[in-house]
Amino acid sequence: xxxxxxxxxxxxxxxxxxxxxxxxxxxxxxxxxxxxxxxxxxxxxxxxxxxxxxxxxxxxxxxxxxxxxxxxxxxxxxxxxxxxxxxxxxxxxxxxxxxxxxxxxxxxxxxxxxxxxxxxxxxxxxxxxxxxxxxxxxxxxxxxxxxxxxxxxxxxxxxxxxxxxxxxxxxxxxxxxxxxxxxxxxxxxxxxxxxxxxxxxxxxxxxxxxxxxxxxxxxxxxxxxxxxxxxxxxxxxxxxxxxxxxxxxxxxxxxxxxxxxxxxxxxxxxxxxxxxxxxxxxxxxxxxxxxxxxx
Length: 295
Fold this sequence. Notes:
By secondary structure, the chain is an all-alpha fold. It has one domain (5-290). The protein has eleven helices and two strands, in the order ααααααααββααα.
């Protein structure tokens, strides 16, 4: 073996080990923290646990980056080109109408079987990825972020104003907006597109190219881990791996790839954070207000 390739191989193996270890510890923390009294109280009062995602998706990976004395900008923590990246995030929000409203909403409204719905959602995510790549390939720099900031604020206010008008505004509705936008959106993006994807990019590079977007093993592995995270939502230790939501994993892996290519194209977490958090911060509280159940 070439002696010059030995350190490179060692670095790659260490990065894979580090990523898998951090993911395993993160998943363990999610399960372990879920049973403590504080978390249960948060869910009762706020509808969601704030401490679990804050510890698992933000503090834990941030601690790893800090202890390793790595460059935060390499992990997407930067406001470079924020106006343009904000615009990309808002455009991604519009593109996500395809999987959310068409792929999930129409089959549910028509009462189609879960198998047909899952296939429709998967196909729509593939279409959304293709559309987003096309959008980013034609995207131009933006000089001002004012209009997009106003638009985001208005969209986040819609569930609150609607809740007031329908007399259904509650702490849980407001909490859902905050939780989905900040912790689910930017929190999960920091862990998966920030830490996992960037860590693997550091040693494996981004040798692949798709319509002007360079990416590598990082976006693929981070997407798979993102899908696996959501698959564990239905995990039952008594049933083992058979209880994992495999269709959920496939859908969220595609969603992870959608967000991952945005991260690769823009270079920061702002656009994927907006793309991830904004649809959920608008949709989830609306479901609570109207009493919708999305299977």
